[in-house]
Amino acid sequence: MLVLGIESSCDETGVALYDSERGLVAHHLHTQMAMHAEYGGVVPELASRDHIRRVIPLTEACLAETGLRLTDVDAIAYTQGPGLGGALLVGTSVANALAFGLDIPVIAVHHLEGHLLSPLLAEPRPAFPFLALLVSGGHTQLMAVHGIGHYEVLGETLDDAAGEAFDKTAKLLGIDYPGGATLSRLAESGDPARFTLPRPMLNSPDLDMSFSGLKTAVLTLVRQQEAQNGAIDDATRNDICRAFQEAIVEVLVKKSLKALKQTGMKRLVVAGGVGANRQLRTALDLAASRRKFDVFYPPLALCTDNGAMIAFAGAMRLAFAHPAAGFSVKPRWDLASLPAA
Ligand code: KG4
Ligand code: ZN
Prior knowledge:
10 helices, binds zinc ion
């Protein structure tokens, strides 16, 4: 079974081919980061127009690379939501039109389910059940994953998502959009001992998190430093990046450990863009070896948005879902509302 996956929910156009026997056979991606950088954030109308320009050439690139033809494709999966309405409509329209033309099933995929299942594209694959730490630009959740579609939210951020906190903090430190990955790189040369930032809700009795106060704490620290020493120099900026990253990583790790203890689960799966963060991975790996649990990540290139995770989730869902063609998109969509396998 060969599934073509199309992702167009935000600022990345991703197309991939997943074969249920051979695994991921091709994936191509175009990121719009440079285009949006000029505006300091995603401009939805520009995003939609760019998806239109990219989606067919990316599909052709996947086919050309593998020597396959459109007529070899057995089903088409696309991101139906959540995301930007106009951007989602591009993938939705192309997927439905292709499927209609080819007379094959079309599968609507939940973007977060794509992220959640993406570690299953790496070896070794985590077995169900597992605890998932979903840390993306739009969401931060801890969930118990009992099987495909059996998702139980255990805790989540009450305000900003972890990736959003990285991006907003990067912006106020003068780092170009989207600054999360750059902030994280600069943090590596920062001094962890120079500044300490608050760890919001670190010891709250639940598994919820809050990151918006952290960004405000960084702003206050920047103002203090500017008042004392004038404009922030590179070393100070890197030290602030480090303090920010230390705080956010500690919260994510502690809440994950608490959730593992609470559920008795022995497998932790990390998914979403912030899952690419090196300090987070190092801290989780260390905790895993000390506390005897296994931790799984998607391949680094598949942490952020991509078509491979959509093709894969589509292939999983095809096994039991009743595919339905339709041009509706779901800019807001609760993951826990998905039908279970
Ligand atoms: O999962 P994703 O591609 O998009 C959403 O579905 O939201 O995640 C993008 C987020 C951005 O906020 C980006 O800054 C963040 O992931 N990100 C990182 C790193 N790489 C990407 N945050 C921290 N450290 C990184 N290395
Ligand atoms: Zn995403």
